[in-house]
Amino acid sequence: MTKKMIITSTDKILAVMEHRSISRAAKALNLSQSSLSRAVQEFESELNTSLFVRTPDGVEITDAGRLCADYLLQLKEAEEDLRKGLNFLRSSFFTVNIALPLHVSSTAILEIEKKVHDRYPDAELHITNVFSGKVPPGLLSDEYDFAISWRDGEGDPRLSFEPFYDDHFLLLVPKSIQIKSHQLVVEGRNVSTVDIQDIALLPFVLQNEGTSVRGTIDQFCEKYGLTLDNRLSVANSMVAINAVKRGIGCAFVMEAYSPFFRDSEDFSVYFMPEDVEETIGLLKLARKDLSSVELYAADVIRSYLLKRRGNYHIGSPGGEG
Predict the structure, then answer these.
(1) pTM score of the predicted model
(2) Cβ neighbours of residue 289 under 8 Å, at least 6 residues apart?
(3) Domain ends where: 57, 86, 115?
(4) H helices then E strands: how many in the chain?
(5) Other beta carbons less than 10 A from residue 31's beta carbon
(6) Domain end call among 86, 118, 150
(7) What is the pLDDT of residues 140-179, one digit of tens each?
(8) CA–CA separation, 205 vs 9, rounded Å?
(9) What is the CATH number of the domain that holds 109?
(10) Which residues contact 310 (CB under 8 A, 6 or more apart)?
C-alpha cells in the first residue's frame, strides 16, 4: 500500500472507529455509505486483516483495528505537522525580501525575478532599491532577508558580509573645470587618471559622512594628507552624479554607476590615481542561514552584476573606451 493511499484513507477509517458505524461515519464525512464501505474493504484488503466486525447496530473494532488506530492517529498528527510545515515554507521560505543598491535597474530586477521563478515557481521575490545606509537597519529589523551592498555595517558583529568583487572608484569632473590628466592601464583598459595632489584643488560634491563611499574616500584622503573642498553634501551617488552634471562640483562614484553617465557630455570621467576600490557583496544577519531559494537568488544577482561589470567601458574622459 502506498503512503498516499494510507493518508487519504486515514480520516475514513478513524471516522468509522469513532462513530462505530459506517452509515454515521459516512454522514459525518459527507460521503455515500457505499463509497465509505468500499474504502474500508479496500483498506482491510491491503492490510490483509479485518479491522471491524459488522453488527446490527454498526461495527465493533477488532484487536487489529485497535492496533491500527494507534498508528493512524500518529499518522494523522504527522500529516498535520507536515501541512503546518509546508504552510510555513509557503509563507516565509518562499517569500524573499531583498535589498539592492540603486544602480541595479528595474529591468535587471525583472530579469532576476524571472530567472529565480523559473527554478522556484512558488518563490515570491520582493526586491527593493535602497540607499546603502538603510541596509544595515533594514536587515536588523528583519525588513530584508539579505542585501547586495557594500561593506556598510561590516563592523557590527550581528551582520555577516560575503564579498563578490571589488569595484573601482571614478572621479567625475564637470567640463567647466580644467585638470591635467595622463593615461593609465586598468585591467587591460587604457583609461585617464589625474595626479593625487591635483585632487585637493577641486571643488567637491561629497556623500554624507557615514556612507560607505565617504568612508573609503576619507581613508584615501587621510593616507595622502588631502583636505577636500566640500561644496555640497548629498545622500547617494545618483544625487552626486546629477550635481556634477549641473556643474556644482566634482564627485567620487563607483564604476558600477557608469551606465548612468558613460555617455554624458557634461563632465569628464577619470580613474582614481591609486587603486581605490569598494567591495560589493552579500550582507545578511550573522545568525541567519540562507535557504536554497535565497542562495540561488543571491547567485543570480551576483552573476548578473559580474556580467554587467564586464560590460563597463570607461576609457578616455567623458566617453566610452
Answers:
(1) 0.63
(2) none
(3) 86
(4) 10, 13
(5) 16
(6) 86
(7) 999 999 999 887 666 789 999 999 988 889 999 999 999 9
(8) 72
(9) 3.40.190.10
(10) none
